[in-house]
């Protein structure tokens, strides 16, 4: 019998025993239902796969519908979703409060940083002029946004047949044609990781005060200390404007977002940075870890002859660059010649050195944790809960079908940017060129360059980011069982709960409207629809994405993404139902599913 859909296009069903979230599409040959079955003692959701081979299709009205159970009133609601709204976040009162508070805090942060710049009390404003500092900051934010967005796009498109978007989005196709050849995607990810650090360090030099005592808008010392000296204002607008806003859009609008020459330029720059060999010391770490674990690291044939010599020559050069950058940083710290000695004079050189490595370790753990969480999400529950802290971490992370995983990614992003800003204070030098105190006797021009602290970007990228990502991808369970992982997860979730970064969703909606972006489903359909139309997605290779670092691995264009919220977890056993189930679904009586499913 036909269902009775009310004026809001919602249907209320009252299952007696099933708490479920079902995603139904008439275009799919498999329907997935994440089920939480009472009385079975399960602490994670099982999955039911309804095999529709040789079974009549589900009626038209269920196409792209979501059946979501409300645990409070024990009602289940069926709602229609169209491709152009399939990832929109509902506006709840609590979300509206957080959106408003975050936008207000963002506006205040931009205002006081702008005022600080025009006092001439930042390094770039002092060495050039305030307008240069302001323009450089704006350009750096825009480029950082593209760097972050492009990663979200490029790690989700490899499985998709490029023929589907070759004609409609030719520049996206050119991005894919370059990035998806051999190891180019890993090369891009290596280069973009260094680019992120460099750009954030540039923003830090444009927006951080040199003299904490200078007046800014008559603010109290406490407000200046929090927002300017510590850098909370710069951290907030860098995270919201330069990272989260573009990531939110690019994770669902991959094809539109990189269909421009700015994205193609960014891709070429990232690959060129990797080609320069500055970060090739990370490949040595990768080779060592690969030898220990026995896992492959390349999609290309073994290097021989000139290619072999050129590669390892750059590795040696990179080790020399890393050693020099580390030596400059440590000598300056012990001599008290860094920004941290001016901003926080009570911090001794020994403590400053400890704090530098402490914050780099925090960056490393946060980079590793996102890889670990996505890796262990696919493991059986008994394999990931192997220790006290492993159980605590999984219990918190995957509570309510993984609802805390997207929250962690938001809090993690804010924590990483904060750590980058703090590391910048420890690596920026205060030696005046021309006074005979140049570090290691370098030229005045070299000293002026070192004062900007870019050597810290080299050290942090190699020792505080990529090496941790590589280790985490090979040993995810070991990281999961670390008590520090649980502590950082709690901190990240607390930061996300405050809503200070929720303005990114508002700005993402504005950007989507202004730029005319569409969700990927509009152009290429969902994975199931592509399969139906003989353009099935390719598999993610086991040796792909060694250096992802973006949190979007495993979510192809047009699919349910982590930013949509809770993820379905697939159990080892697939439950198959008969054609009677279709009659039950056609009648919109999900409660009858318990009568035909065999557990």
What's the topology here?
Blueprint: E1 10-13, E2 19-24, E3 30-36, E4 46-51, E5 65-70, E6 75-80, H1 93-117, H2 123-127, H3 130-154, H4 163-166, H5 170-179, H6 184-207, H7 221-229, H8 232-250, H9 254-257, H10 261-276, H11 281-293, H12 305-335, H13 339-343, H14 349-376, H15 381-384, H16 388-397, H17 399-402, H18 404-427, H19 444-450, H20 454-474, H21 476-480, H22 483-498, H23 503-515, H24 520-524, H25 527-532, H26 579-586, H27 593-596
Antiparallel strand pairs: 1-6, 2-3, 2-5, 3-4, 5-6
Helix pairs in contact: 1-8, 1-23, 3-6, 3-8, 3-10, 5-10, 6-10, 6-18, 6-20, 8-18, 8-23, 11-12, 11-20, 12-14, 12-20, 14-18, 14-20, 16-22, 18-20, 18-22
Terminal residue distance: 27 Å
Biggest beta sheet summary? 6 strands, antiparallel
Shape: globular
Helix- and strand-based class?
mainly alpha
Q: Strands across the major sheet, in which order?
A: 1-6-5-2-3-4
Helix content: 55-70%
Low-pLDDT residue spans = 1-81, 542-554, 565-599
Structural Rg: 26 Å
Mean pLDDT: 77
User: Helix count, per DSSP?
Assistant: 27
Percent of residues in beta strands:
5-15%
Short synopsis of the structure:
By secondary structure, this protein is mainly alpha-helical.
């Amino acid at each position: 019998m036909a269902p009775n859909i009310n004026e809001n296009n919602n249907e209320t069903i009252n299952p007696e025993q099933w708490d479920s979230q079902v995603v139904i599409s008439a275009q799919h040959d498999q329907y997935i239902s994440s089920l939480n079955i009472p009385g079975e003692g399960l602490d994670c959701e099982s999955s039911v796969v309804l095999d529709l081979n040789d079974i009549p299709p589900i009626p038209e009205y269920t196409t792209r519908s979501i059946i979501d159970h409300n645990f409070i009133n024990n009602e289940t609601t069926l709602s229609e979703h169209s491709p152009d709204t399939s990832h929109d976040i509902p506006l709840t009162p609590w979300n509206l409060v957080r959106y408003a508070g975050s936008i207000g805090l963002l506006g205040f942060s931009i205002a006081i940083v702008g005022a600080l710049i025009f006092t001439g009390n930042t390094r770039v404003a002092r060495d050039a002029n305030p307008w240069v500092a302001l323009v450089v900051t704006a350009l750096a934010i825009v480029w950082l946004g593209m760097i972050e967005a492009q990663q979200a796009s490029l790690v989700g498109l490899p499985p998709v047949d490029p023929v589907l978007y070759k004609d409609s989005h030719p520049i996206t196709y050119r991005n894919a044609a370059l990035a998806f050849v051999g190891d180019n995607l890993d090369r891009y990810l290596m280069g973009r990781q260094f680019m992120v650090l460099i750009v954030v360090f540039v923003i830090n030099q444009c927006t951080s005060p040199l003299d904490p005592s200078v007046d800014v808008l008559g603010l109290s010392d406490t407000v200046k200390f929090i927002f300017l000296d510590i850098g909370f204002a710069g951290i907030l607008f860098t995270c919201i404007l330069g990272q989260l806003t573009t990531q939110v859009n690019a994770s669902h609008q991959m094809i539109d977002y990189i269909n421009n020459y700015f994205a193609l330029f960014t891709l070429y720059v990232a690959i060129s940075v990797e080609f320069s060999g500055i970060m090739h010391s990370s490949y040595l770490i990768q080779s060592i870890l690969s030898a220990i674990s026995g896992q492959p690291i390349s999609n290309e044939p073994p290097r021989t002859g000139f290619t072999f010599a050129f590669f390892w020559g750059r590795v040696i050069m990179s080790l020399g660059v890393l050693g020099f950058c580390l030596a400059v940083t440590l000598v300056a710290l012990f001599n008290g010649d860094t920004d941290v000695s001016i901003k926080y004079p009570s911090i001794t050189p020994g403590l400053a050195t400890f704090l530098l490595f402490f914050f780099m370790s925090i960056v490393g753990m946060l980079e590793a944790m996102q890889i670990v969480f996505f890796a262990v999400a696919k493991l059986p529950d008994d394999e990931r809960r192997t220790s006290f802290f492993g159980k605590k971490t999984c219990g918190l992370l995957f509570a309510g079908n993984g609802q805390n995983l997207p929250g962690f990614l938001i809090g993690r992003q804010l924590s990483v940017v904060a750590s980058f800003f703090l590391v910048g204070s420890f690596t920026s030098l205060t030696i005046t060129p021309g006074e005979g105190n140049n570090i290691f006797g370098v030229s005045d021009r070299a000293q002026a360059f070192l004062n900007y602290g870019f050597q810290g970007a080299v050290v942090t990228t190699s020792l505080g980011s990529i090496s941790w990502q590589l280790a985490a991808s090979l040993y995810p369970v070991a990281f999961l069982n670390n008590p520090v992982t649980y502590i950082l997860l709690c901190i990240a979730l607390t930061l996300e709960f405050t809503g200070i970064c929720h303005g990114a969703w508002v700005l993402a909606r504005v950007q989507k409207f202004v730029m005319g972006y569409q969700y990927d489903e509009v152009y290429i359909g969902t994975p199931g629809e592509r399969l139906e139309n003989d353009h099935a997605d390719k598999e993610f290779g086991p040796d792909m994405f060694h250096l992802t670092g973006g949190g979007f691995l495993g979510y192809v264009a047009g699919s349910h993404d982590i930013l949509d919220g809770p993820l379905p977890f697939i159990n080892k056993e697939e439950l198959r139902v008969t054609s009677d189930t279709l009659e039950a679904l056609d009648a919109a009586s999900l409660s009858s599913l318990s009568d035909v499913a065999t557990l």
